[in-house]
Amino acid sequence: MAATETMLTLAHRGRRDGCPENTLAAFAAAVAAGTDGIETDIRLSRDGQPVLFHDRLLPDGREVARLSAAELSAAAGYPVPTLDEALASYPDLFWNLEIKAPAAVPAVLERVGRLKRTYRFLISSFWHPAVLPFTRFREVECGLLLACHPESFDAFACIFPRDGSIRTAVLSYEMLDPALLDQGRALGFRTYVYGVETEEDHRHCAELPLAGVISDGLEWRQLLKP
Predict the structure, then answer these.
(1) What is the spatial distance between Cα 3 and Cα 214, in angstroms, rounded to a whole number?
(2) Pair 8, 120: CB distance under 8 Å
(3) CATH number at residue 178
(4) For the segment 29-49, what is each residue's pLDDT rounded down to a tens digit?
(5) What is the pLDDT of residues 110-140, one digit of tens each?
(6) Residues with catalytic annotation?
């Protein structure tokens, strides 16, 4: 089987040409460009809503967690969608939900548990304990975000649960190389890569055994398809 046969292209925070990231407009633009799915960031608002917002702070210095969902949209100057709104708008997409703040875990867990049989999810986080509760759902793919390049994939494997409940790594493009991927495959891991931006980046990824690419350059997505 060719390495690219099942490779997915996920739009990193949507397609951000002319619209704010992580918005319904950015997701609509990504769908129009032919994306397979969306990577988006989740925080928890003061009123308990899982909201799609990357940064911990607004430009004026206020914390997202200290604002209600309505106040966040007003402060940002555009409608910041909730997770519920995004999922309802695009039920057929593959959703990579990156949990930015552990406080968001219970709200996301409830929604993923309810929708796991009808939606396709990849749950990821740099805060690795935030991913563990989702491993109870067999239908849901769980992955750890990693931003370093170890001596070998064996060093990565040591930080994954020993019970094998998480077998997906989400790596930075700058830390990517074929030897590392081959080691991961030999150990039974799937790998996604984020930070893929240029045409050259996409050509490189097309030659590698990746499960998916989290792309900032959807205009080159066709290079990833066999």
Answers:
(1) 16
(2) no
(3) 3.20.20.190
(4) 999 999 999 999 999 999 999
(5) 999 999 999 999 999 999 999 999 999 999 9
(6) 12, 54
Report how many domains make up the chain.
1
For the chain, give the number of residues.
226
Segment (H or E) for 160: none
Nearest to 138 by CA among 110, 166, 108: 166
Please tell me the pTM assigned to this model. Answer: 0.96
Q: Which residue is associated with the tokens 């989290």?
A: 214
Q: Give the domain extent around 206.
A: 8-224
Exposed/middle/buried for residue 222 (C-beta within 10 Å: 0-12, 13-18, 19+) = exposed
What are phi and psi for residue 142, nearest 5 degrees?
Answer: -120, 135
Neighbours of 133 (CB within 10 A): 16
Query: Cα(69)–Cα(82) distance, rounded to whole angstroms?
Result: 8
Distance between start and end Cα atoms, the chain: 11
- Joined tokens for residue 147: 């931003």
Angle (nearest 5°) at CA 89 between 17 and 24: 25
Rg over alpha carbons for the chain, rounded to the nearest Å, is: 17
In a domain, 69, yes or no: yes
Cα 40 to its chain centre, rounded Å, is 6
| Alpha-carbon span 156 to 38, nearest angstrom | 25
